[in-house]
Amino acid sequence: MKNKEIADIFNEIADLLEIKGENPFRIRAYRRASQNLEGLTKDVVSLSRDELLEIPGIGHDLAEKIEEYIKTEKVKSLEDIKKEIPEGLAALLSIPSLGPKTAKLLHEKLKVKNIAELEKLAREHKLIGLPGIKEKTEENILKGIGMLKRGKDRQPLGRVIPIASDIVNQLKKNAPLEKIEIAGSLRRMKDTVRDIDILATSKNPHDVMKAFMHLPHVKEVLMHGTTKSSIVTKEGIQADLRVIEDESFGAALAYFTGSKEHNIRLREMAVKKGLKLNEYGIFREKDNKKLGGKDENDVYKILGMQFIPPEMREDRGEIEAAQKDSLPRLIELGDIRGDLHVHTSQSDGSHTLEELIEAARQRGYEYIAITDHSKGLGVARGLNEERLMEEKKEVDALNKKLKGFRLLMGVEVDIRSDGKMDFDNEILSRMDIVVASIHSGFRQSKEQITKRLVSAMKNPYVSVIAHPTGRLIGERDPYEVDMEYILKVAQETGTAIEINAYPLRLDLNYIYAQKAKDLGVKLVISTDTHLVSQFAYMHYGVSIARRGWLEKRDVLNTLKYEQLMKALWRKRKRNFT
Length: 577
Ligand code: DGT
Ligand code: CA
Ligand code: ZN
Description:
binds calcium ion; 24 helices; 45% helix; binds zinc ion; five-stranded mixed sheet; single chain; Beta Polymerase, domain 2; alpha/beta; binds 2'-deoxyguanosine-5'-triphosphate
């Protein structure tokens, strides 16, 4: 949900206003709005202007900022305030436990300009004696700086999953475990995660904790307890391990999988039914009799609803749907019949057609689409018309030989800065599939970028828009684009939209994937493979689709080859007649 993101932004604005010494009433208004947004059970994205105004503390001004953020993922006034405050000073606020008042004080009295200076002063005990600063405050500041240095707040899912799986596998080998499961945002397959939450059962928790402390991954031990321990891995990610009683394992798994919002709703429902739900189980209120909690499904069954897949647990309507027995049947990895975005060594991939076919067949695929870059993308050795036709010949020849497997001849055509396609329609018309995407001009205005994508979708030969927002998680923000409008045009033109499964992309994100589905837009889930090992990224793309409530029928590459080709031809036919 965007609620938390926007709540954080309002809080940040309040912090910065406080550093600036602005009107306390204004600051208070932002804090109040932030709190109320965070406590909101409805998804703010789904609210109309009038409904926004009903949230306590939200007037027209803040409602406008909320809408701005939903559309652009930015709030301009925040960017503006940031410009007015020395960068290093604003950065002090990223230190956990250091508030704006202290930041302002440090700046005014000691001329602290950045975190490094603050750390030095704190080590030399030069902060003590400032109003309100005691030895303990100094300690906390140093602790906070340490935390900050250990790692970024959130890491991309694709970076953390391999680490988490490895920890689990090592524990399975080296600790006396019975059950072990990953919980938290990782189990919900959120695109970024803050830490790794692991739950286990064992007759010997002591030895499990010991094994955990001695994993090769450990850089630092934060806490070593009898049933709960926390470490920081060499990659700078915190991992918590809890050993749970077997009869509570299901309840604990539900609790620690979250999300917090989902849990809160479940607990409220339990209370209404005269029950009590916590991480130990589900109980009858009047006599505390335990009704369940060994299996996770106990919780949902006793509350009178369907089991909710972890990816959906965000309080975005899944509880209501589960009560009505109307949860979607989510797409699964096994539904995927092929990959529709694959590069060969002709452009910037690493493998020949034969190697790619071999790897795809090993995954059980029935087809893949070869989509090398087009000529304009020099850095990726994009193909000109001649080389593309040469590649098409090879693909045709292979298709004649192959049994039970098909190659689709395609191209990832660059959408140029002026909105023109990098190839003429004459060339595009000879492709089985055309994947169009933006690789330049990321800083163009929202209008310009939206226009470029619209012009691509209006081309009858463009089948799919790839990585539609261009984001690279933690590295590059999405370009500015009116995604609502893009989806509308996708629906009107019959253009499919890609969920790019490459771990740093995961683009479309799950919110828009769901919007696309609701509008009747078809999606494809593709890996953008450059190396055969990257076919395995499909798993991440499917998770995003599941978080967006997608079913098999919403995704084109679940179709058999013939049906897929028909679906791809539909747009061209329509545009011809
Ligand atoms: P993250 O770590 O920020 O990527 O996201 P989560 O969802 O893994 O959050 P985390 O690690 O703080 O907590 C794990 C789960 O524990 C969370 O999804 C729900 C549960 N939980 C944590 N704090 C609370 C709480 O205050 N109330 C309730 N009901 N559940 C909580
Ligand atoms: Ca977590
Ligand atoms: Zn690509």
